Write the C-alpha cells for this entry.
Amino acid sequence: MSREALDRALMARALDLATRGLYSTPPNPAVGCVLSRDGQIVGEGWHERAGEPHAEVMALRAAGEGARGADVHVTLEPCAHQGRTGPCADALVQAGVARVVAAILDPNPRVSGKGLERLRAAGIAVDANVLADEASEINRGFLARMTRARPWVTVKVGMSLDGRSALADGSSQWITGPEARADVQALRARASAIVTGIGTVLADDPSLTVRDARLELRGRNPLRVVLDAALRTPLQSKILLPDAPTMILTAAGCLLSNAAGAERLRAAEASVEGVPEKEGRLDPGAVLARLATLDCNEVLVEAGPRVIGAFIAAGLADEIVLYVAPTLLGHTARAVCELPPLQSLSMRSDLEWHDVRRIGSDLRLTLRPLENKG
C-alpha cells in the first residue's frame, strides 16, 4: 500500500472514531486519533466529552511505549494552548512520535497553525489536508462558529407529498411515520440548541428532548430555545420541564412591558432574554449571534412556517432536511414555510441535493444552498 493510500485508510479510521463523540463533545469539536507503526495500529482514541482528555491523549494512553516513533493521524490539528486540558501538541512531542498527519487545521484563532508549528519545531514531520472534506463535515458546526461567528443551522420539516406541514387548524401529529420521527432524534442529539416558535409550542406542546437512549449524550442535553415575542409560553408547557435547559427569547420591549411574565418563566427555571426585532419579528440573525456566544455549534430549527421562512429568507439555513410522507393534505393545509413573494424567477433560492434516502415509509431529503459547500 502506498503512503498516500495508508494515510487515507488510517485517517478514515480516525474519522470513524471521531463520530463516536459527535453527540457528547459540544462545544468542543469531535476528534479521533490513531497511532500506528509500519501501518499497524498501536493505539487509538477519541474525544469523548468536553472537559475530558482529547483524542490525542486517549490514543497515547492506549499506545503506551508504542507511541515512540509512531505516526499519528488525527482529524483536527492538535491544540497548542492551555484550556480545560493541556496542549495536545506538547503531549505528542513528549511521547516522541515521529510524524503527525492532520485532516484539517483548527479554525480556532488561538490554535490555527500553531499546533503544527510546535510539532515542526520539535523535529516531527507534519502533513495535513487528508480527507479534509470529511473532517470538515463532522465538525461543520464548530467550523461555522469559529469562522462565521454563528452556528451551523439545520432546518427540519415533516411534510406531505404536496408540500404541506399541517392542516389548516395546525394539526400535524403525525404526518410522517415512526421511523422518520425516530430519525429526527439524531438531528436533535447533534444540535447544541433546538429552536422553535411560540406557535409550535401552543399548537403541539412539544418537549424537544432527545428520547433515544442509544444516542450517547453523556449528560449533555440540547438547549431548547423558544422565539416568543410576547411571552405567551404557558407555564404548564412540556418545554419548561426540567429534563433539558430552556431559553425564552422575546422582544426587548416585552421585557419592560411584561416584566411579571418574564419573572414567572424564570421561576419555572427558564432563562428569558430580549433580542432585536426585524420586520416585525424576532431577528433570526440576532438569535444565532446570541447562541454563538453560548458556544452553540449546531442549531436545529423545528418550527412552524413563519419561523422556518424567516431563517430561510435571511439566508441562514445551511441545510434543510425534509421528511416527506406519501400522503396528500390538500391546498387548504399549511405550507412548509412562509417566504416573501418573488418578483421574478431570478430571485428564487436554489438548492442542491446533498442526500436522499428512504426512512421507513417516508423519504428524507437533505438539501443545501448552492453557494454553501460546507
Q: What stands out?
A: DSSP finds twelve helices and 18 strands in the chain. The radius of gyration is 23 Å. The longest strand covers residues 351-359.
